[in-house]
């Protein structure tokens, strides 16, 4: 059943109360999801996005109750992933000549899934517009990597509605459509989970893209996402939240996760947490056994944390497989501005902790000393764990603790001269999107960047040879 969104805009999407898995089984949707499609009836009739392919028939049947399909003048596909463009085959079988407006990248994906290159595609890029009559216009804004290279948003003038697709959405199902109608705690839990698990790798792109959109100085009365609620009450609250989350977000919080063969590593986790709490009672500490808890919730907690402690028993001289899988996920999510440390119990040999430590370093965490215990920790070993927790609490503190410390002495220049070398001389930089590495020794001759050029001297016009994005997405390697 359609729901009026504003004036001549209706929601014609699909709720999915029972979906529990997204992206294979990697994202657990405990609160279901929705696939929001919108029908605009102005001088022209416009459909914005469709729904997941498994609801294709229901979608077209329901849409037909709202409008004669032949009367749809334009279809806008903001993003070609199957949860939004999935019903195209069913719909286009009924109206095969209807123009489809999307980005160039989206055509590749739509053809790859639907295999109809003869469809009437019209490519758009940022700033392009489409007159839909009654003095209203659709303006397109490309948003590559939010969340796929093909993604874009569509802004409707006069009504001032931004159809944002995945961005600002949540995997959240509720009979209510608008943000002011649902439980706010549930809503923001799902927003944070969605950002942490899906958008974190692209945080470097979020801020400039939002600023680009804000730079158009367009009023925004509603943000109509493609999952979850439509933001109509103070819609830019979620934009402000994204800017906060994209800025190396952290709270005064530490997450500990582990897997354990005989509870020995669990005992270490408990004692480390006690030590942290002893020294800094204000820091929030959460502990999870990764084999018993929702992985996406743990990742969300890490996203919120200033640091993470990762524990594993040693099994066959390596870490336990669920911990290894989680570390792979952490590497992909590319969390920034976070500290980390490994711990674990071992019996015959202790390979797990060293491997975890290396993987954490590769994933971009700022590493603290690790801790091992042989066999089941006794009273002395548990006190060492508590002391380790106290050290971690001191090293990772975000506020002064009740401790006396020696003042840090300034270090004299080794050469005794005033000349300061470039702070980034010799520092390689990695593209946080495609992992291409800039090596200052090699430069980038194809863009006239000579060997020996420090990153700070590379021109701002530089584009990553791997993904064509700018300098802002690079981090020190
Ligand atoms: Fe909701 Fe990227 O699809």
From TrEMBL:
<keyword id="KW-0249">Electron transport</keyword>
<dbReference type="Pfam" id="PF19583">
    <property type="entry name" value="ODP"/>
</dbReference>
<dbReference type="Pfam" id="PF00301">
    <property type="entry name" value="Rubredoxin"/>
</dbReference>
<keyword id="KW-0479">Metal-binding</keyword>
<keyword id="KW-0560">Oxidoreductase</keyword>
<protein>
    <submittedName>
        <fullName>Anaerobic nitric oxide reductase flavorubredoxin</fullName>
    </submittedName>
</protein>
<dbReference type="InterPro" id="IPR008254">
    <property type="entry name" value="Flavodoxin/NO_synth"/>
</dbReference>
<dbReference type="InterPro" id="IPR036866">
    <property type="entry name" value="RibonucZ/Hydroxyglut_hydro"/>
</dbReference>
<comment type="similarity">
    <text>In the N-terminal section; belongs to the zinc metallo-hydrolase group 3 family.</text>
</comment>
<keyword id="KW-0288">FMN</keyword>
<dbReference type="InterPro" id="IPR001279">
    <property type="entry name" value="Metallo-B-lactamas"/>
</dbReference>
<dbReference type="InterPro" id="IPR016440">
    <property type="entry name" value="Rubredoxin-O_OxRdtase"/>
</dbReference>
<feature type="domain" description="Rubredoxin-like">
    <location>
        <begin position="426"/>
        <end position="477"/>
    </location>
</feature>
<dbReference type="Pfam" id="PF00258">
    <property type="entry name" value="Flavodoxin_1"/>
</dbReference>
<keyword id="KW-0963">Cytoplasm</keyword>
<dbReference type="InterPro" id="IPR023957">
    <property type="entry name" value="Anaer_NO_rdtase_flvorubredoxin"/>
</dbReference>
<keyword id="KW-0408">Iron</keyword>
<dbReference type="InterPro" id="IPR045761">
    <property type="entry name" value="ODP_dom"/>
</dbReference>
<dbReference type="InterPro" id="IPR024935">
    <property type="entry name" value="Rubredoxin_dom"/>
</dbReference>
<keyword id="KW-0285">Flavoprotein</keyword>
<feature type="domain" description="Flavodoxin-like">
    <location>
        <begin position="254"/>
        <end position="393"/>
    </location>
</feature>
<dbReference type="InterPro" id="IPR024934">
    <property type="entry name" value="Rubredoxin-like_dom"/>
</dbReference>
<keyword id="KW-0813">Transport</keyword>
<dbReference type="InterPro" id="IPR029039">
    <property type="entry name" value="Flavoprotein-like_sf"/>
</dbReference>
């Amino acid at each position: 059943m359609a729901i009026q969104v504003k004036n001549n805009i209706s929601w014609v999407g699909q709720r999915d109360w029972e979906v529990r898995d997204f992206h294979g089984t990697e994202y657990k949707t405990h609160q279901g999801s929705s696939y929001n499609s919108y029908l605009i009836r102005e001088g022209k009739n416009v459909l914005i996005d469709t729904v997941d392919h498994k609801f294709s028939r229901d979608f077209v049947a329901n849409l037909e109750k709202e409008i004669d399909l032949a009367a749809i003048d334009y279809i806008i596909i903001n993003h070609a992933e199957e949860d939004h463009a999935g019903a195209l085959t069913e719909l286009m079988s009924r109206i095969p000549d209807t123009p489809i407006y999307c980005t160039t990248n989206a055509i590749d994906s739509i053809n790859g899934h639907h295999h109809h290159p003869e469809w009437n595609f019209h490519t758009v890029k940022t700033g392009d517009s489409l007159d839909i009559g009654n003095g209203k216009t659709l303006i397109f804004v490309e948003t590559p990597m939010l969340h796929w290279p093909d993604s874009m948003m569509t802004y409707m003038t006069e009504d001032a509605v931004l159809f944002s697709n995945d961005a600002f959405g949540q995997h959240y199902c509720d009979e209510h459509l608008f943000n002011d109608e649902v439980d706010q705690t549930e809503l923001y839990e799902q927003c944070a989970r969605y950002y942490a698990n899906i958008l974190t790798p692209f945080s470097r792109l979020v801020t400039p893209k939002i600023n680009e959109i804000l730079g158009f100085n367009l009023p925004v009365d509603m943000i109509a996402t493609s999952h979850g609620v439509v933001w109509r009450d103070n819609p830019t609250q979620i934009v402000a939240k994204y800017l906060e989350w994209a800025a190396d977000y952290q709270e005064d919080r530490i997450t500990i996760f582990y897997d354990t063969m005989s509870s020995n590593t669990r005992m270490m986790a408990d004692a480390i947490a006690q030590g942290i709490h002893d020294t800094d009672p204000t820091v929030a500490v959460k502990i999870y056994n990764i084999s018993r808890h929702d992985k996406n919730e743990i990742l969300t907690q890490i996203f919120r944390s200033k640091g993470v402690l990762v524990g594993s028993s040693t099994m066959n001289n390596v870490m336990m497989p669920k911990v290894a899988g989680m570390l792979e996920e952490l590497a992909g999510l590319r969390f920034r501005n976070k500290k980390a440390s490994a711990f674990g119990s071992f019996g015959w040999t202790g390979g797990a902790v060293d491997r975890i430590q290396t993987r954490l370093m590769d994933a971009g965490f700022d590493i603290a000393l690790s801790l091992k215990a042989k066999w089941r920790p006794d009273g002395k070993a548990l006190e060492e764990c508590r002391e380790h927790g106290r050290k971690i609490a001191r090293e990772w503190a975000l506020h002064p603790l009740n401790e006396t410390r020696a003042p840090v002495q300034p270090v004299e220049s080794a050469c005794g001269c005033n000349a300061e070398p470039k702070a980034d001389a010799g520092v390689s930089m990695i593209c946080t999107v495609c992992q291409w590495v800039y090596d200052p020794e090699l430069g980038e001759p194809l863009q006239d960047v000579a060997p020996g050029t420090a990153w700070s001297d590379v021109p701002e016009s530089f584009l990553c040879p791997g993904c064509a994005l700018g300098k802002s997405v690079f981090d020190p390697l």
